[in-house]
Amino acid sequence: MQTIKCVIVGDNSVRKTELLIAYTTNKFPFEYVPTVFDNYAVTVMIGDEPYTLGLFDTAGQEEVYDRLRPLTYPQTDVFLVCFSVTSPASFENVKEKWFPEVHHHCPDIPCLIVGTHIEKRDDPLVIEKLSRQKMRPITLEQGENLAQELGAVKYVECSARTQKGLKNVFDEAIVAALEPPVPVRARYKTLPLDIMPLLNKMKYVNVM
Q: Partners of 112 in the beta sheet?
């Protein structure tokens, strides 16, 4: 069975662990959220072919983790580089820290830029808090522009709390891994070159 390794990186404010728990359990973890998500493997059917989607959480931006985090990167097939749309600082860190880090260690591996917390983008309290700092929530256009500037596969966004766009994030990650840029595609000669039409037929078999 083909395995797709997906690694998620970003600031602590992004709440990466909430994102992964919500995706694998189909519900938001309102009560307890562990510091780091246990690695999970989700078996999915794309057309008639089974794939294992391995999901790997990473520790945040504290300096102590900077040497440990890259140990997760070998054999990665796709990165999700995340920021919170309510945290301009986390958005800047995609450009200043996270994308450069994964690109340095894995220059040929596809990356998606992922905006989280989209349910709070229009929250008056969030807008007011940011406006006091002369800032505002990150827009869809800003996310798309950043992905284009960095040379990422694309920009996608979601809400772990409402699950809006959540499945699409991981659908796009699978597409990016199985249809990577030409320099990477040589590693996947036996895989279907166009799986997008099969995504609507994708079924989640089990979570391990």
A: 80, 154
Write the pLDDT tens digit of every residue in 108-149.
999 999 999 999 999 999 999 999 999 999 999 999 999 999
CA 186 to chain centre: 23
| Residue-range definition of the domain harbouring residue 61 | 2-207
In CATH, what number is assigned to the domain containing residue 191? 3.40.50.300
Q: Which amino acid is at 95?
A: K
Query: What's the pTM?
Result: 0.84
- Write out the H or E segment, with its range, that includes residue 40: strand 40-46
Number of domains in the chain: 1
Interatomic CA distance for residues 77 and 122, integer angstroms: 34
For residues 38 and 57, give the distance between their C-alpha atoms in angstroms, rounded to a whole number: 7
